[in-house]
Specification:
heterodimer; A: mainly alpha; B: 69 residues; mainly alpha; 54% helix; rod-shaped; membrane (chain B); transmembrane (chain B); transmembrane helix (chain B); DUF4418 domain-containing protein (chain A); transmembrane helix (chain A)
C-alpha cells in the first residue's frame, strides 16, 4: 500500500512536470512565412490536453479505493504516456526539423517514458494486491 | 475525499485547463504578434539584389561552363 501511494505521487509529479514543460523548455516561438504557427505548436497544444488528463487520472489514483479502478487508472496512465511520446513523431503531428522544440521533445520523451514506467508499476502493484485478496 | 467530489473538482480543473489552452497561457507567446515584430535585417536591399543576381547567373551556367539557352 505504501508503494502504491508513492507511485501515485510520482505519477502526479511527472504529469504536472509534463504539463508545464513547454514553459520550462520553450518550443519554437516564431511563425511560418504564411503567418501560421509551426507544427510543433499544434503538437504541444495536443500534448497539453493529454497531460492534463494524465494529471487528473494520476490524482484519481489517490482517491480510488477498489483494485479494479486502480488497475484501470494505471493502465490509462500508460496509454496516455505512450500517446504523448507518439504525438511529436512525423507520422502523427510532428515537430520542426531544426527548432528549439527538439529539446522540449527530448525532455518530454524522458518524462513520458518515466510516467509509463510508473503507470506499469501501479498496475503491477495493484495486480499483486488484488491476487492476494 | 469521495469520488463524486473528486470528479466535480477534476471537471472544473479540466475546464480551467481548456481555458488556459485557449488563452495560450500554457506556452510562451509568439515572437511576432502584436508589438513584437521580427527583427529587421540591416542588410541593404541593393546588396541582397546583387547577391541574388550572382547566384542566378551561376545557376544558369551548365556543367561545361557555358550559359544555358
Amino acid at each position: 500500500m505504501k508503494k502504491y501511494k508513492l507511485l501515485s505521487w510520482i505519477a502526479v509529479s511527472i504529469s504536472l512536470f509534463l504539463l508545464i514543460l513547454p514553459i520550462l523548455v520553450p518550443i519554437c516561438d516564431g511563425l511560418t512565412k504564411a503567418g501560421s504557427p509551426m507544427t510543433c505548436h499544434y503538437t504541444y497544444q495536443a500534448e497539453f490536453i493529454i497531460t492534463l488528463i494524465a494529471v487528473i487520472v494520476s490524482a484519481a489514483l489517490l482517491v480510488l479505493r477498489t483494485n479494479e479502478a486502480r488497475l484501470l487508472a494505471g493502465f490509462i496512465i500508460i496509454l496516455l504516456a505512450i500517446s504523448s511520446i507518439l504525438l511529436p513523431q512525423s507520422w502523427a503531428i510532428g515537430i520542426c526539423e531544426n527548432g528549439s522544440c527538439l529539446k522540449t521533445t527530448f525532455f518530454l520523451t524522458i518524462g513520458a517514458s518515466l510516467l509509463a514506467v510508473t503507470g506499469a508499476g501501479i498496475v503491477w502493484t495493484t495486480w499483486d494486491s488484488s491476487k492476494e485478496s | 475525499m469521495t469520488v463524486q467530489k473528486f470528479l466535480a473538482i477534476a471537471f472544473l480543473i479540466f475546464l480551467l485547463g481548456i481555458g488556459i489552452l485557449y488563452n495560450g497561457v500554457n506556452r510562451i507567446p509568439f515572437r511576432n504578434n502584436g508589438n513584437h515584430e521580427h527583427h529587421q535585417s540591416t542588410l541593404s536591399t541593393g546588396a541582397i539584389l546583387l547577391s541574388n543576381m550572382s547566384t542566378t547567373s551561376e545557376n544558369k551556367k551548365g556543367a561545361d561552363g557555358n550559359e544555358k539557352i
